[in-house]
């Protein structure tokens, strides 16, 4: 039997125990702090598809409203979807979805908050991803060529590593 309790403690966090077997990281030595993560995804679609979304004419209903709800629900299920991810008592999850004519498509931004021993980056990334997948599902009958892209962490606050912000996708002039 493998000793899965020795996986590095707070100073050497790893998903492997002393024998190399995969384990959930032991975060018990870490401080409980407020942690916030913001993730983004983009759904690129045909201009005509974006018009359907803006008008609210999709056959399956309110694309933005349903995708927002799906993203929130997805964040709450992150530990069920990502192996070895800690289940977290989320304090809040928001999913904002804005049309962007320049893509054309939708920009999804998900924010997850928790006071815990580990961060919420995966919850924010899951929320953005699930919202994007929901947009695709709701519109695939009219635009199978949509892409879900640029899923990434935008910002993370709290915890031992402090504050981090991603560089912009748009180059500075």
What would a concise description of this structure say?
Helix content is 27%, strand content 27%. The chain is an alpha+beta fold and 173 residues long. The radius of gyration is 19 Å and the shape is elongated.
Work out the helix count: 4
The portion of residues assigned to helices is: 25-40%
Uncertain parts: 1-11
| Structure class | alpha+beta
**SSE pattern:** EHHHEEHEE
**What strand line-up does the widest sheet have?**
2-3-1-4-5
- Give the rounded overall mean pLDDT: 90
Strand content: 25-35%
Assign an overall shape: elongated
Radius of gyration: 19 Å
Count of DSSP strands: 5
Largest sheet: 5 strands, antiparallel
N-to-C terminal Cα separation, in Å? 58 Å
Organism: Tistrella arctica
InterPro entries: MoaC, MoaC_bact/euk, MoaC_sf, MoCo_biosynth_MoaA/MoaC, Mopterin_CF_biosynth-C_dom
GO molecular function, one term: cyclic pyranopterin monophosphate synthase activity
Catalytic activity: (8S)-3',8-cyclo-7,8-dihydroguanosine 5'-triphosphate = cyclic pyranopterin phosphate + diphosphate
């Amino acid at each position: 039997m493998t000793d899965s309790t020795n996986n590095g403690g707070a100073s050497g966090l790893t998903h492997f125990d002393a024998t190399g077997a995969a384990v959930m990281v032991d975060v018990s030595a870490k401080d409980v702090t407020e942690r916030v993560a913001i993730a983004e995804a983009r759904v690129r679609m045909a201009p005509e598809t974006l018009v359907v979304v803006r008008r609210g004419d999709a056959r399956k209903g309110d694309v933005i409203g349903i995708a927002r709800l799906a993203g929130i629900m997805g964040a709450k299920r992150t530990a069920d979807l990502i192996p070895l991810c800690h289940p977290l008592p989320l304090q809040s999850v928001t999913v904002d979805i804005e049309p962007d004519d320049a893509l054309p498509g939708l920009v999804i931004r998900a924010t997850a908050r928790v006071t815990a021993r580990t961060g919420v980056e995966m919850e924010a990334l899951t929320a953005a991803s699930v919202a994007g997948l929901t947009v695709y599902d709701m519109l695939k009958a009219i635009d199978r060529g949509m892409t879900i892209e640029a899923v990434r962490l935008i910002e993370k606050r709290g915890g031992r590593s402090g504050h981090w912000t991603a560089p912009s996708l748009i180059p500075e002039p």
